[in-house]
Please model this.
Amino acid sequence: MTNVNLSIIRANIISLLITLYMSMPLQASESFFASDDLGGKNLFCEEHNLFVTYNFLDNKRYKTTNYFLVYFDIGIREGTYGHLNNPRYLYLKADKKLEIYNKLNKTDNEKNWQKKVAEVPKLDYYLDTQDLNITFSPGKYSKIKSSCKLFAGTAKELRDSSLKKYLKNFDNDN
Model:
């Protein structure tokens, strides 16, 4: 074979590889965040003594539920999210209003949980859309608050699944 033929073959192989690469499906987190509107998307996150879920309600609002594993408390609040100059991160700005549900006894069903509303400081976190971590600042060296996974179901399915996991945690205690 001549050098010209080898060059043509190399060019065809490179072209084929580029075509194959471009036609590959996006990774889960890339396709999850491909749109500015995350409405209907859900995350399940874990951190020390806490499960946290994020339900993206529309193109601006989200709802988070904190399942505290030390106490029988569940905290729910909403907030806004948006994009930063660095497309890898979303800011998460929680509202001040926090609803807290307290299960006084292990045997209480959900209807008997006490509800109180508290005004708490707004908390700003950042969602690293590449590694699916909640962080304290938008940078790859920021401390990770929680590690998350995409949840394929609806917000109700995520709530039911998380609540089941949460209550099971207390069944294992004495």
